[in-house]
């Protein structure tokens, strides 16, 4: 049983705090407790479509007050990573405002003229022309980066193709595999930890997916909390070779624990 003193929190967004545009039970209590106690935290998402400001407004419309500086997206992580990888800062980007804004903010020029990298993010309007251009640039030597490996994303009508599915098509055409920056890559979490000046041994992560959230948290050395309110059902946990440290029905259970503990030593609380 864990004996960590937890001082910082990372939490996934969809399936943990909200579903579509509705806050899940306990989400407001969880965020309110973190803010009132001035506990460092980040809300994480692999979604690269929206800016942190967009997502802050989306959460606010669901009744959750999360400042944009407390939101960390795969787009922001990708831009921060590439700022250290591309001295010329020239990129061909397939994506929406969340990704293009993040790239601009770290000094990238968006161009199809000899870019260092082709960056693929999520968008609801993939065009054959832009994907053809991406394929040709990768064939010409540009490095292939993608924000996240998710093959589908949620919508009101059901699953829709996401970044990983489109990246697979580009890989089939070029023979080049992308480097994925978002979860489960620990790079995204480690940069997030640096953003809030947090140490992995004092940080917990709450997520609803074993294959991205829990895997990333485990590989980053965080205390892991799986909630069953999103993508993963309890019986599906057995399909994985690793386990979360704690399992909860939803974020409300985590919020209740935070509300009871003055010292945030969840390791003493068991499963």
Structure explained in plain terms:
By secondary structure, the chain is of the alpha/beta class. The protein has two domains: 8-46 and 183-268, 3-Layer(aba) Sandwich (Rossmann fold); 84-180, HAD superfamily/HAD-like (Rossmann fold). It is built from nine helices and 15 strands. It has helices at 27-36, 52-61, 74-83, 97-105, 128-139, 163-174, 186-195, 210-219, 251-260, and strands spanning 8-12, 18-19, 22-23, 41-45, 71-73, 90-94, 109-110, 117-120, 143-146, 152-153, 160-161, 179-180, 203-207, 223-227, 246-248. The strands form four sheets. It has a six-stranded parallel beta sheet with strand order 5-4-1-13-14-15, sandwiched between helices. The protein has a five-stranded parallel beta sheet with strand order 7-6-8-9-12, with helices on both faces. Helix 1 (27-36) packs parallel to helix 9 (251-260), helix 3 (74-83) packs parallel to helix 4 (97-105) and helix 3 crosses helix 7. Residues 262-271 have low confidence and may be disordered.
């Amino acid at each position: 049983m864990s004996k960590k003193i937890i001082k910082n929190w990372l939490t996934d967004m969809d399936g943990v705090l909200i579903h579509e545009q509705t806050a899940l039970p306990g989400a407001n209590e969880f965020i309110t407790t973190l803010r009132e106690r001035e506990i460092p935290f980040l809300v994480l998402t692999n979604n690269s479509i929206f800016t942190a400001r967009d997502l802050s407004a989306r959460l606010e419309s669901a009744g959750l007050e999360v400042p944009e500086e407390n939101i960390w997206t795969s787009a922001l992580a990708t831009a921060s990573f590439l700022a250290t990888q591309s001295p010329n800062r020239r990129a061909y980007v397939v994506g929406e405002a969340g990704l293009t804004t993040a790239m601009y903010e770290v000094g990238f020029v968006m161009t199809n003229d000899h870019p260092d990298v082709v960056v693929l993010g999520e968008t609801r309007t993939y065009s054959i022309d832009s994907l053809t251009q991406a394929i040709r640039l990768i064939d010409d030597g540009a490095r292939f980066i993608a924000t996240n490996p998710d093959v589908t994303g949620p919508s009101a009508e059901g699953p829709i193709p996401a970044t990983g599915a489109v990246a697979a098509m580009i890989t089939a055409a070029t023979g080049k595999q992308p480097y994925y920056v978002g979860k489960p890559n620990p790079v995204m979490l480690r940069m997030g930890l640096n953003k809030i000046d947090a140490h992995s041994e004092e940080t917990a992560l709450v997520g609803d997916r074993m294959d991205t959230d829990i895997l990333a948290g485990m590989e980053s050395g965080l205390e892991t909390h799986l909630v069953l309110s999103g993508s993963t059902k309890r019986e599906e946990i057995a399909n994985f070779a690793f386990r979360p440290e704690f399992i909860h029905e939803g974020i409300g259970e985590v919020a209740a624990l935070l509300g009871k503990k003055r010292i945030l030593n969840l390791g003493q609380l068991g499963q």
